[in-house]
Amino acid sequence: MKPFELYISYVSWGSQGKLRPILVFYLKAEIAYVYPITSQYETKSVSIRAKYFKITNWSQAGLDKQSYVDTRSYFSLPSLVLKDKVPIGELSSEDKQKFLEFLTKTNT
User: Fold this and answer.
1) Cβ-contact 60, 87 below 8 angstroms
2) Is the pLDDT at 108 greater than 70, yes or no?
3) With 0-12 CB in 10 A as exposed, 13-18 as middle and 19+ as buried, what is 95?
4) Which among 10, 27, 26 has a CA at the least distance from the CA of 85?
């Protein structure tokens, strides 16, 4: 497992959750810090869409349709959760660079 790889993992919110793509952003010791990925964009408010990073090369990343990294909040999970999973893909070099720029711009 390495930064910018995408996996399918169970993501929960409150008492609900579902399997969805996630982007590994940072690894520290036994913890993976990840962002959820969504294809839901058009129905979101302008303020929420402003925090969604558009993955340009979504097919190369292993996704089956246009998707976005939801940068409103990341979450952490034990690295063991993803240890035996095969990544579905990885952000392209272009998307990696744009994502880092996006994070810098939206968090200042």
Assistant:
1) no
2) no
3) buried
4) 10
Q: What is the pLDDT of residues 47-93, one digit of tens each?
A: 999 999 999 999 999 999 999 999 998 989 898 888 889 999 999 99
Total number of domains constituting the chain: 1
Chain centroid to CA 45: 19
Do residues 13 and 5 lie in contact, with contact meaning Cβ atoms separated by under 8 Å? no
Cα separation, 79 vs 47, in Å, equals: 31
Domain that holds residue 52: 5-106
How many CB atoms sit inside 10 A of residue 96's CB? Answer: 13
65 close to 59: Cβ distance less than 8 angstroms = no
Contact 76, 32 (CB under 8 A): yes
Q: β-strand 52-54 against 31-38: which pairing, if any?
A: unpaired
* CATH code assigned at 26: 2.30.30.110
Give which of 11, 2, 1, 21 is closest to 61, Cα–Cα: 21
